[in-house]
Amino acid sequence: MAEEFDLVVVGGGPGGYAAALYASGAGMSVALVEKDKVGGTCLHRGCIPAKHYLETASVFRTVSGAKEFGVQADQPLLDLGISRARKQKVVDQLWKGLQGLMKRRKIKTFVGTGRLGADHVVTVDDEAGTQLHGRHVVLATGSVPRTIPGFEPDGSKILTSDHVLELDTLPASAAVIGGGAIGCEFASMLSDLGCDVTLLEALPKLLPGCDADVVDVVVKSFKRRGMTVRTGVTVEGQEQSNGQVTVRLADGESVTVDTVVVSVGRRPLTDGLGLEDTKVEVDEKGFITVDNHQRTAEDGVYAVGDVVATPQLAHVGFAEAIVAVRDMLGEALEPVDYGKVPWCIYCHPEVAFAGMTEQAARDAGHDVTVSKHSFNANSRALIIGEAEGLVKVIAEKRPDGKAGPILGVHMVGPWVTEQLGEGWLSLNWEATPDDMGQLIHPHPTLSETFGETVLTLTGRGLHG
To answer: EC (predicted)?
Structure first.
């Protein structure tokens, strides 16, 4: 007989554990089914370990440039084994903390793959064949890396992002296929640590979805640091010989490297969920169809995170989980506005943005006014030696010529992933540059560049 719960969550990544924690905080009895470790891809094979290695690259860059500050230091050498051990220490600390939190919240965890059947019964593929019945069910099984025909990952010469995070030594050269957020992060990290990197992207520009001015800064930085960037190229296949891989391009050219990293996005992991026995609908790409309250076509069954066709970001999974639980509770809620979610990309230089790009705003019919300010005029940026980048704010242009609500905030440069909060809030509160221009930004800080950018939109900028 199935054990009864108010909520059964299938999948323990950000969307899943957020749903479990939020529901338990509302007094619901919760069961969570996870086949691996609570925390999912983000904690164990994605966001957290990747950002650790990007921080390793940042430390390496800092030591390499120490002489510029009068600090005499030899050229650094990388011990990837130590960095990898530190990565695992960080991951384990966060994982144990999450496990402890789940236990304190009295969330019952079951290890195994959950399969949804009729009447909200989830069967776990453990030895006991455990059955769980929930008044509500949340599907949050996440995603896995996509692959390319002819580039099947082998963990040695053809790698996915999962493999890169477990490397014992870095290759001397690598081709990264895919110039999106993950591809640019890995290309940046590998290059900074001494790998000869070629970045290949099929689309006309890197970082699809980013503002063109931001992308220009990233590309110039990558090239200045010795990276080869090829856009508008597609791969046709590969051959391996003498320990190297030759990647054939559709234009007839080729690239020979030690290792290939395939970074062409992630696909939803909905295989084996048993959805064929329910009313839950799955589209042709494998995504579960939901409404703006995260409800599937099966009454009482919700889906959140990477299994739905929304931005594959951990914080979006968190937000969707909250929406789903509030709907179960019959509470008032605001659906996620996917056009205004914050995006952060941790390559060097960092990228952060929310809202419309300038081109998207114009394409949508907005009359816009735009302000851009470079970090090379920011005293704090010059002090830390990270003056590469800019802040760009796009606002509606009113009939009287004044700037109306902010439509988009786009940043590239030092620690912009930590600076986006103010821009994201201004966008979501539909603030105008006049609203934001009254705020005081401490001096000297990197945040002054955002302040100056919005102040200029009022027509009375101080420094530009």
So the answer is: 1.8.1.4
Identify whether the C-beta of residue 258 lies closer than 8 Å to the C-beta of residue 273. Answer: no
Q: Is 185 annotated as ligand-binding?
A: yes
β-bridge partners, 381: none
Residue type, 187: A
Residue 114 marked as a ligand binder: yes
Q: Which residues touch 422 (CB under 8 Å, ≥6 apart)?
A: 436, 439, 447, 450
**Is 182 marked within a binding site?**
yes
What is the reported pLDDT for 277? 84
The percent of residues above 70 in pLDDT, for the chain, comes to 100
The answer to whether the annotation marks 201 as part of a ligand binding site is yes
Name every residue whose Cβ is closer than 8 Å to that of residue 71 and which is 6 or more positions away in sequence. Answer: none
The response to whether 388 counts as a known ligand-binding position is: no
404 labelled ligand-binding: no
Per-residue pLDDT, averaged over 144-163, amounts to: 94
Q: Where are the domains of the chain?
A: 3-145+267-338, 158-264, 349-457
Q: Please say if the pLDDT value at position 464 is more than 70.
A: no
* Integer Cα distance of 389 and 221 in angstroms: 9
Is the per-residue pLDDT at 264 higher than 80?
A: yes
100 marked ligand binding residue = no
Please tell me the predicted confidence (pLDDT) of residue 276.
Answer: 87
Phi-psi region of 236 (alpha: psi -120 to 50; beta: other; left: phi over 0): alpha
Other Cβ atoms within 10 Å of 343 Cβ, number: 21
pLDDT at 462: 83
Q: What's the whole-number mean pLDDT along residues 43-68?
A: 96
Torsion, Cα 323 328 330 331, to 10 degrees, reads -30
The third-level CATH classification (topology) of the domain covering 158-264 is FAD/NAD(P)-binding domain (3.50.50)
Percent of the chain with pLDDT over 90: 96
* Residue 334 annotated as binding site: no
Answer whether 3-145+267-338 and 349-457 agree in fold.
no
Residue range 3-145+267-338 forms a domain whose CATH class is: alpha beta
Identify the band that residue 405 occupies on the pLDDT scale cut at 50, 70 and 90: very high
Give the residue numbers marked as catalytic. 443
pTM for the model stands at 0.95
* Whole-number Cα distances in Å, 294 to 18, 307, 443: 14, 11, 43
**Above 80 in pLDDT, residue 158?**
yes
Instruction: Look up the CATH number of domain 349-457.
Output: 3.30.390.30
